[in-house]
Amino acid sequence: MENVTPEEQAAYQPEIHISAEEAAQVQANFMRQVYAWMAGALALTGGVAMLVGSSPEIIELVAGNRLVFWALLLLEMFVVGYISARAFEMSVSSVTGAFVAYSALNGITLGIIFLVFTADSIASTFFVTGGTFAVMSLYGYFTRTDLSRWGNILFMGLVGLIIASVVNLFWLNSLLYTITSFIGVILFVALTAYDTQKLKALAFVGLGDEDTDRKAAVLGALTLYLDFINLFLFLLRIFGRRK
After folding, report:
1. What is the pTM assigned to this prediction?
2. Does any domain span residue 140?
3. pLDDT in tens, 68-121
4. Contact predicate 178/207, CB 8 Å
5. Does 14 map to a domain?
6. Which range of residues forms the domain containing residue 74?
7. Does some domain include residue 92?
8. In total, how many domains does the chain have?
9. What is the per-residue pLDDT for 101?
10. Most buried by CB count within 10 Å: which residue of 46, 81, 82, 212?
């Protein structure tokens, strides 16, 4: 998870010596929390998105007014940045509330995909995303390969993808759209495995401190949630059937 450095982790991590079996149990319990929070956030986002997609009035407010749409996107970026940077300084309720609020906000902006793609293709792409995410997350969790060497490459790829996507908002080139879609899928497939492995280390940050453990779990859930949502959107660009 790029937003928490090893030095920051060490500041919150108590020096406690445990056996390998106990360490594995701590990681398993932590990841169960992470996946539970992530699943809850995805359910909330999906529910809000379907509600928005079924309401012409809300769709008109969000999609028909660029100012509202971009304001929502900027607010989402602010909330994500704030949680990532200040999670361990916030109270448990504040971190949780911010994550829930972000999930709902994201559902509002994602609701517009129902204007562009058929409901069947959205549903099928969601299940494809779920399967792909599960496989790569399990790989990241169980592999003995050190995936930390992917970090710089993935970061540079993410920066390049963002720049190319912003450029294409103005250029509107279909070839670049297709290329960035496939690159986005590859990038977030790799990030899913990479982030999952990094989260195993985060499991020990809150060892012996229930509040810190909960904050770390929510922060981890946010990381994997973002991987899932972005993977879903790029897959939808490739496989989604337009209306």
Report:
1. 0.91
2. yes
3. 999 999 999 999 999 999 999 999 999 999 999 999 999 999 999 999 999 999
4. no
5. no
6. 19-239
7. yes
8. 1
9. 96
10. 212
